[in-house]
Amino acid sequence: MNWPVIIPMLVFLVIIFFIGIWSSRKTAASGDGFIQDYFLGGRELGGFVLAMTMVATYGSASSFLGGPGTAYTMGFGWILLAMSQVVTGYFVLMILGKKFAILARRYNAITLVDFLKMRYQSTAVVLLSAFAIIVFLFSAMAAQWIGGARLVESLTGISYNTALFIFAISVLVYVTIGGFRAVAVTDAVQGAVMVVGTFVLLVAVIIAGGGIPNIIGDLVSENPNLITPYGNEGNLSKAYVSSFWILVGVGVVGLPQIAVRSMSYKSSVSMHRALIIGTIVTGIIMLNMHLIGVFARPILPGIEVGDTVIPLISMEVLPAWLAGIVLAAPMAAIMSTVDSLLILVSSTVVKDVYLNYIKPDASMKTVKRASFGVTAVLGIIVYMLALNPPDLLIFLNLFAFGGLEAAFIWPIVMGLYWKYSNKYGAIASMIMGISSYVGLHFYNQANGNLFGLHTVALPVLLSFLAFVGGSLAFERKAHSFKQARKEQLKHEYATEE
Amino acid sequence: MKGMEENEDWRFKVANREALIGIALAIFNFIWWFGFAYGLGSRPVEEYTYVFGLPSWFFYSCIVGFITIAILVILVVRFFFKEVPFTEEGDEV
Q: What is the CATH number for A111?
């Protein structure tokens, strides 16, 4: 057992746990608005917390373990690819931005599905989107849990299964108790840990490698391709790397866990602040983590499982106690991603399926019990799945991301900005997005990437065409948000009478 | 979008404008990133130049590019983004 590393991490987990309890007190105190509070933190996030929760949700195991691990193998080309994520820092909030925040409040939407339900007034849209969220986010969660357990495993030397168990317990206890606010607030703490941690580690790695020119020299003498934009074997094509601008860049607008954060902030001032902080923090973390991955290569050659590069290099170049604190960063990232996915899937089950269709008149007490229960049960199921994990974490994770993006990007964005958007377009777009994504995934696996692009690119295009086609072909009618508002108010008065 | 102007919520106009700014920034960001990376990085490795020990394509594309975008975001938010209320009292203004 590597106690000097483990103790700082344990301290970190305990602190996080107490923040969870503290936040849950706040939830309990506000009584009536339990659902809004548990799943959305009462829509009162400030700028810093909002930015950090966005970054932490997004900067998942893929960017903290898988990403640097791949950079270790591929060299600078993979850092170039990773830097396409900086765009998410501002793009998501600028696009969804104020219109989404206003409409989410007007519709009283707690989840992305609520928003789609009100905009498109269609049961099929609700069920399809709930289905997509549950299926795809399950694979994303499994990937994150595997990452977390790997980290604990490589730190402590205990077996993967035990590590997974420890990880699962800490996540579950904390999410079940705290809800969205706990997740968001601790994301802020964890985000700060990540920024500081990556800086410390990067500096230590550069010193251990004898300075940047020295490290670059070592890389060139091993394989000059490592410092080109084309990857270690020269097979990272321009088209492939650029298509990551859709997958991890602009397409992130379509991710439900990101969209739900865009309805949780307090005011346009907090949104403005979050835009700036989010962009800077994303850039710093991505740049540092991937540079560390590449720079680790001459220092610790021959690492085979990419996910272990960051833990191993930290323990190599830092004193044990500091490695423990720094490694809390990827731990933090993984935990916060898992937490937010868990909250999201459970809100989909409770709010979008159970309350909409199974028991609309459930009492507050039942809803409360269902929320805690569903969250816990979901966690246990993911744990079971993660017990027998596939090797390539990052691709499993990206599969889920791409599928969700192809399904949701157009129903969200076009629903906001194109007045002819209607439910036929949304349904066509979701079906087209998911089916072409899954189909193309298997085609690409068998035959290599079609047109040299990442799997996500074409389905996003196809689902756009399906959206426009579907909307124009059936019941074409310009949507007026004002008219919809009037009808909503009329309906509300009628039910109050 | 014609014909919408007279009866659509004023806050949505602000939102539309800001969304367009977002798209413009993303396009600029992509061109900068792509241009420097492949413009300077496609030469044979022996002809590479280095800035602070890093390959110049990487330095300009990823590091300078990131700093430029961060500054642009700050400027754009400060000078072009409007504060609007999110609650429905803002509706009737």
A: 1.20.1730.10
Q: Which among B2, B7, B18, B68 is the top mutation candidate for probing chain A, defined by the most A β-carbons within 10 Å of its own β-carbon?
A: B18
Domain coordinates in residue numbering, chain B: 11-82
A106–B88 C-beta distance less than 8 A: yes
Angle of helix A97-106 versus helix A112-120 axis, rounded to 10:
80
Calpha distance A406→A128 (Å, rounded):
13
Please count the residue pairs, one from chain A and one from chain B, whose beta carbons lie less than 8 angstroms apart: 144
CA angle A290, A296, A297 (to 5 degrees): 110
Residue of B nearest to A101 (CA): B86
Residue A276, Cβ density class (10 Å: 0-12 exposed, 13-18 middle, ≥19 buried): buried
Categorize the per-residue pLDDT at A478 as very low, low, confident or very high, splitting at 50, 70 and 90.
Answer: confident
Mutate to test the interface with A, among B77, B79, B91 (most CBs of A within 10 A): B77
Q: How far apart are CA A175 and CA A178, in angstroms?
A: 5
A268/B70 touch (CB, cutoff 8 Å), yes or no: no
How many Cα atoms within 13 Å fall on the side-chain side of residue B77?
Answer: 24
Angstrom distance (rounded) from CA A309 to CA A486: 57
Statement: residue A351 has pLDDT above 90:
no
Tokens of A31: 């009584």
**What ipTM describes this predicted complex?**
0.88
Q: How far apart are CA A189 and CA A268, in angstroms?
A: 22
If you write DSSP's letter for every residue of A336-374 in order, what string do you get?
A: HHHHHHHHHHHHIIIIIIIIIII-TT--HHHHHHHHHHH
- pTM equals 0.84
In 3D space, the residue among A267, A279, A254 whose CA is nearest the CA of residue A54 turns out to be: A279
Nearest-Cα residue of chain B relative to residue A83: B62
Range of the domain at A273: 3-394
Number of domains in chain A: 1
Is the four-CA dihedral A153, A154, A155, A157 of positive or negative sign?
A: positive
In a domain, A85, yes or no: yes
pLDDT at B1: 43
Task: Note whether A80 contacts B61, CB cutoff 8 Å.
Answer: yes
Element spanning B54, H or E? strand B54-55
What stretches in chain B show pLDDT beneath 50?
A: 1-6, 90-93
Contact status, residue B90 vs residue A103, Cβ threshold 8 Å: no
Domain-embedded: residue A139:
yes
